[in-house]
Amino acid sequence: MGPRSDSACGGGLLESVAMMRITSALACGLAMAMLGAAPAAGGIEPLPPRTGIDAFTCGELLGLQPEMQERALIYLSGVADGRRAAAVYDAEATGAAIDRMLAACRMTPALPVLGALRAAWR
Q1: Which of 33, 44, 89, 122 could form an SS bridge with 65, CB 3.0 to 4.6 Å?
Q2: Distance between CA atoms of 37 and 93, rounded to whole angstroms?
Q3: Which tens digits make up the pLDDT trace of 55-99?
Q4: Contact call for residues 57 and 109 (beta carbons, < 8 A)
């Protein structure tokens, strides 16, 4: 029996997982850069350079200007997808989860955003 290829040994799967992690890390880095790059001329204040994402509350999210709120939601939904090891991005399901999360945030502003988003995916 001859040597087996990487793909026969599951190497292709490992490469795919590694590539997804790299892509996710790059997307998170880009989103973080965008969060801090809000135009000052528009009167939109960026998030502090160091924001504890696990402690970031719904009240803080809802208090952001609409453009910054959208940027924060893009970033935080990516973080949540990474934590739940999502293999596929489903725009419709993500939008519905964000809508449920925002409803919970309006009812309980002290909730951590990532906790509210995690609950919205259940």
Answers
A1: 44
A2: 28
A3: 999 999 999 999 999 999 999 999 999 998 999 999 999 999 999
A4: yes
The 3-class SS string of the chain reads: CCCCCCHHHCHHHHHHHHHHHHHHHHHHHHHHHHHCCCCHHHCCCCCCCCCCCCCCEHHHHHCCCHHHHHHHHHHHHHHHHHHCCCCCCCHHHHHHHHHHHHHHHHHCCCCEHHHHHHHHCC
Q: Which amino acid is at 87?
A: A
The CATH number of the domain holding residue 106 is 1.10.890.10
**113: in domain:** yes
Average model confidence (pLDDT) across the chain: 77
Closest CA to 54 of 121, 119, 120, 111: 111
Structural tokens at position 52 = 């504890």
Amino acid (one-letter) located at 106:
R
45 domain-assigned = no
